[in-house]
Amino acid sequence: MSFKKMSALLLVAMLAVGAFGCKKKEEAPKEAAAPAPAAAPAGNTIKIGFLGALTGDVAMFGKPTLDGMKMAADEINAAGGVAGKKIEVVEADDRGDKQEGASVTQKLISRDGVVAIVGDPTTGITKVAAPIAQKAGVVLLSAGATGPGVVEIGDFIFRDTLLDSIAIPACIEYFAKDLKFKKVAIVTSDNNDYSVGLSQTFRDAAAKVPSIKIVADEKVKDGDKDFSAQITNIKAKKPDVILFSGYYTEGALIMKEARKQGLKSPMFGGDGLFSPKFIELGGTAVEGSMSALGFSPEQATPETEKFIAAFKAKHNGELPGLFDAQGYDAVMLLADSMKRANSADPKVFKDALAKTKMFAGVSGTISMQASREPIKSPLSLLYVKDGKFVLKAKVPVKMD
Predict the structure, then answer these.
(1) Superfamily for 165-293+382-395?
(2) Closest to 191 (Cα-Cα) out of 236, 169, 221, 229
(3) Consecutive H or E run containing 235
(4) Region 218-242: what's the mean pLDDT?
(5) Per-residue confidence (pLDDT) for residue 162, from 0 to 100
(6) What span, in angstroms and rounded, lies between the C-alpha atoms of 282 and 286?
(7) Closest Cα to residue 270, out of 230, 330, 322?
(8) How many C-beta atoms surround the C-beta of residue 282 within 10 A?
(9) Concatenated DSSP letters for 152-201?
(10) Which residue from 154, 198, 225, 303 has the fewest beta carbons nearer than 10 Å?
C-alpha cells in the first residue's frame, strides 16, 4: 500500500473516531449550566417572561395571568413604552410541573434574555424558579403565589398577591364576628406546598381567636378521587365551615362527597378554589362555597372600572378575574419601577420595586414592606351563588 493511500485511510479512521466521540459526549447527561447574570437590555425592547401553565390542571391560573400581562404590555407600548422601549412578553408553558418550571426559567433567562419574570401563579413552582432567578440577578414577581417562604429566597424575588398571612386572619375575624362561625374542619392536600402552607397559616391565626375551634384536621392528596373517609370523620364533628386549602378539582369532589353524606357545611378556601372549573365540577354541591381573593370586579375603584371596560372590549364582554388583574398589575408594577429607577437593569429597578408605596393597582392598592412582601387592600370574599362567584364582602386591610 502506498504512503499516500495509507495516510488517507488513517485520516478517515481518525475522523470516524472523532465523530463517534462527539456523539457520545452529546448523549451523555449534562448538568444544566447556571444562567448568566442579567444585564440592562440592548435594542428597542424590554423582555418580560411569563412563567406559568398554559396546559394541564392549573392552566386556569396561568392563562388569565398571561392575558393580563399582554393587556398591560399593549397599554404601556401604546403610551410610548418605558424610556422609549417596547415591552415584549415572552411566554412559555411549564404545564404546572416543577421540573418544567425550572427548565422554563433557565430558558427565559439564558436564551431569551428577560430582565424580569412574572410567575409562577402557584407557590410550589415559584419556590423552584426563584433561586434560579435570584442567582442570575433577574427580578421574579409572582402574580399568584400566596404561601410562605417565597420572598425570603432573595432580594430579586417579589409578588403582588394578597398574602395568606394577611387574608386568613381577616377572614377568621369576619367568620367569628359576622357569620358567628365557631367550629372549623381543615382539609389539607399534603403533597401540595400551597395547601400545606395555607392550612398552617389558618391554624396559627385561629389559635389567636378564642371563639374559633378546629374540630377536625384531615389529610388528602392532589389527584385523590375518594374522600368518603375524610367526610365521614368531619361530619361527626358538625363543623360550621370546612377549610380546604388546596385547588378546585379536589375541592369540588370533596363538596360532592359532603353533600352525598348529608353534610351541609360550606367550604372556604384561598384563590386555589377560584375557577369556573370548581363550579363546573361541583355543580350544586359547591353553592355557598367561599374563596378569599385580592380582587373582585364588584364595587370597583375608578382604576379597576377602566381595566374592566378595556378587558371586556378585548374579550367579548367577559369579566376579568383575579389572575387577569394580578398579571396586569405585575407588568404595570415592573414598568413603574423601571421608570422610577430610570433603568431597565434588574440590579437597579429591583430597589425601586422594593420601595413601592400605595400603588393604585386594578387588583387593589399595593405597598411593599421592608421584607418586600406586599400589603394589599381590600380583601374580597367571594362565594358561589346560582352557579357563579359573586362578592360576599369586601374586608379592608390595614396598610401600615
Answers:
(1) Response regulator (3.40.50.2300)
(2) 221
(3) helix 228-237
(4) 98
(5) 87
(6) 5
(7) 322
(8) 23
(9) GG-TTEEE-S--HHHHHHHHHHHHHHTS---EEEEEEETT-HHHHHHHHH
(10) 225
Domains 45-162+300-368 and 165-293+382-395 share a fold: yes
CA distance 112 to 51: 13
Task: Render pLDDT for 43-91 as a digit per residue (tens, 0 to 9).
Answer: 799 999 999 999 998 999 999 999 999 999 999 999 999 999 999 999 9
**Domain-by-domain residue ranges, the chain?**
45-162+300-368, 165-293+382-395
Stated pTM of the model: 0.77
Number of H helices, E strands in the chain: 12, 15
Overall average pLDDT of the 252-271 stretch: 97
Q: Output the nine-digit C-alpha cell for 64.
A: 388569565
* E-only strand ranges, the chain: 45-52, 86-93, 116-119, 139-142, 157-159, 183-189, 213-220, 241-244, 267-269, 290-293, 359-361, 364-368, 374-377, 379-385, 388-395
CB 333, CB 76: distance < 8 Å: no
| pLDDT per position as a tens digit, 143-170 | 999 888 999 999 999 999 988 888 899 9
Look-up: residue for cell 394577611?
166
Query: What mean pLDDT comes out for the span 341-369?
Result: 96
User: How many residues comprise the chain?
Assistant: 400
Helix, strand, coil share (%) of the chain residues, nearest 5 = 45, 20, 35
Third-level CATH fold of 45-162+300-368: Rossmann fold (3.40.50)
Map residue 67 onto helix, strand or coil.
helix
Q: CB of 308 within 8 A of CB of 326?
A: no
Contact 156, 346 (CB under 8 A): yes
Could you give the C-alpha distances from 135 to 129, 130, 347, in angstroms and in order? 10, 9, 12
Residue 395: the pLDDT is 82
Residue 103: C-alpha distances to residues 136, 169, 298 (Å):
14, 36, 38
Residues 6+ apart with CB under 8 A from 266: 241, 242, 288, 289, 290, 383
Which residue in 185, 187, 135 sits closest to 156, CA to CA?
A: 135
